[in-house]
Amino acid sequence: MYINYFFLLSIIFHVINSYKILVVNPKFGYSHVNFFSQIADILTEAGHDVTVLTIDIDPKITHPGAYKAKVITVPASKEVIDMFSDSIDGDFLWKLNPSIFSQLQLFTRFITSVQKQSLNVFYNEELTEIIRKEKFDIGITESFNKYVFGLFKVWGIKTHVCGFSMSLADNLYRDFGLPFPASYIPCHMAPFTDKMTYLERFQNFISHHISSIIFSLFDDIMSLQNEFNSKYGEGFFNSHGIVGDCSFLIINSNPFLDIPGPKTPKMIEVSGIGIKESKPLSSYWNEILSLRNQTVLISFGTFAKSINMPKDLKDGILETIKRLNNITFILKYENPEDGTGKDIENLVISKWLPQSDLLNDSRLSLFVTHGGMGSITELSFNGVPAVAIPLLGDQLRNSKLLERQKTGIVMNKLDLANPDILTKHIKTILNDETYKKNAQIVSKRLKKRPIGSRELLIKHIEFAAEFGKLDVLDLASRNMSTIEYYNFDIIIPILKLFGEELYHPLWNYYSSNSDDSISLNKFISKSEPLFETDHKIWEEIFNEPEDIIKACLLTSDIEEASDDKDFKESIICNMKKDGISKFIQNECPRLCDGIREHVISLLTDKKKNLQDYSSSILTPFQMLFIKASLNPVIYFNQEGKNNSNRWTKLYDSSVHGVSLNRFENNVYDYKKPTVTIFKLTNGQLIVIALDEEWKNSVNCYGGNNTSVIQIKPKFEREDKSGSFRCNLKLKSAPMGIQFGRYLKIEKDFSNVNDIEVWGCGVEDDLTAQMKQKVWYKKEAEKRSKVPLPGAWDENPDKTILEMGGIKLNNERRDFDRPDDTIARKF
């Protein structure tokens, strides 16, 4: 009694948790019909109420549309049957070449018959009434049956799931807001793997865009958009977004077999749902597999008939079989009665064969296949190596999966005319155990997938039926404009930031001066040197001195001044004379730092260091050049870093006037390196970089990093220790300021128009200078109260005080205080 209650409760629970599902399954390709039949039957086995609506198109397909689900059939008219048969009959499919244009020609040949039958369904009011009354919870059909999604709305079905009986097609990426990566994902009908040559990538790129354009042109025709607008009003159905609106996209692919690529959470891979436990072979087939040690199965599927194969290709296959007489060959052939291969002892010809059961038998050594997704899946799950001879459509891409997994060889169908080629491929695979071992590894991976394809299918369909349209899984990119999606509104301003001077040289650098596209690996490898401090990379990018100067100005936000003309020409002249790399290394080692920081800031989130190129005497470009010329450890107080904002202006004649006293008081006793700019009355413009403190001395001084840089009348530079002399006090030696042949300043500054002195230390160094000045002042005040012995001019104390910046007359007078004793800091 309790057992009866248990079964009753189980039945009630089952009814409550089952859904009414409609699967629309048009018959225009056996593999398509079979895939959706498998979906319907699996959902039926899971306890759901499934109805399959089959729409007849191809009269040669005898598949019922489903074996376990209920079936409703929409028969095709004679007109539709004739139109479809005429489009694919004969040897057309065998002679079709693999180009995208030929493949699209096939599509256009049967599109008219498909559209005609679609219209028959669209205007079938009786069918509409039947479907409406069923009140289905969810509808399922293939993605290119777009008009069916509109009919789901007419029939009152609010939730729909898309299916696709092949690997994810390139034209579907856009529907879900994904970019199609043509650089490593082959198009739906392209004979490539993810490792493409330049020419293959070019073909793949062109194929994708051409097919996208053509499919978009046919979109309104296949979706019956105009008919929906006329009958139900504009806005009732929008075919352009309907595929992406699905709850899930069920794809006939497997992540452990197919090429990995970008997918959204809506995309569910269920390849292998039709793989069942194989049945024992009949005595007939068991006997055939036992005839010889090796057996090869040859089948080209159901769409392209073997009987329509051109004679030269058929003869090539038969000749191959004759040559390999120690191997049993099983050939699927639609008309054995025509006498094909009747005299070949090791050939077995059959209209039909138990392909799945044969593939599961370890005595089958090799499968020669057309590369249909169903066959590729079956042989992969069963661990059988193969020679793939694709004829058309996605077979071209599917076959390459075997090559990628190293479980088979791909062969051009036209090469069948030469028996040497097929013979060679068969021998290669049978004699090389690697193919069999790889096939067995692939088989194990597929069978041990953590979550099986059947479970994934059932759970996701049930989830969709419960929750309906799953907008939460949509990528935001689905609704973006082209400008937003490809970041054109960001890229264009960035290109403007780069400017003409940067954009073209950088593009040539990244693309190696060719029209080649830039792969991610190439971009990374090319970017790495840009982060290094070696200036030679910029010489590689900017071939001409003029270009590198322009780039320096642009990336430092500097506009060329009229006063820069002669200096710039002088720099360019020296670069051409010495070579860019040598000139930069010797004269201005960090000239390209601004370019490097600018490019890095555009490639990363790192902010540029804000540079200060202001000067009362030099132009910003001249100041940039000076700062880029100096040793960063000495003049910027940081190893390898340009921190120019730490410079302090000690003296500026535009503020302090050209005053000997004020110069001494503001500059002397500053213990860190300084950069001094002199503009002389003769037009000469000189910069002295001194790595020691300023002082009056009868001797020359300056360390290894002391430099003189002439800006005008022409650029010259000399780095020389012990070459700088400054004596503004000691009458016992020549007075004035001098640096070799470059600079000579009179003791009273009479030949100086302007002076600017920058301290290269930190704020503490300026404080130390001020303390030193205070000490000197106190010492001077003490001495003013002490009687002076003897001749004062000969007194050694006078010399010491003068060296300390204290000016005294022949008698004795107060410390001469400048008006401005505190340095201005900028």
From TrEMBL:
GO molecular-function terms, A-Z: glucuronosyltransferase activity
SMART domains recorded: TLDc
Membrane topology of the entry: Single-pass membrane protein
Catalysed reactions listed for this entry: glucuronate acceptor + UDP-alpha-D-glucuronate = acceptor beta-D-glucuronoside + UDP + H(+)
InterPro entries: TLDc_dom (IPR006571), UDP-glycosyltransferase (IPR050271), UDP_glucos_trans (IPR002213)
Domain TLDc: 616-761
CC per GO annotation: membrane
Annotated CDD domains: GT1_Gtf-like
Keyword tRNA-binding belongs to the record: no
Compartment list: Membrane
Keyword annotations: Glycosyltransferase, Membrane, Signal, Transferase, Transmembrane, Transmembrane helix
EC code: 2.4.1.17
UniProt keyword Oxidoreductase present: no
A Pfam family hit: UDPGT
Class of enzymatic activity (EC top level): transferase
PANTHER family: EG:EG0003.4 PROTEIN-RELATED (PTHR48043), UDP-GLUCURONOSYLTRANSFERASE (PTHR48043:SF23)
UniProt similarity note: Belongs to the UDP-glycosyltransferase family.
Protein name: glucuronosyltransferase
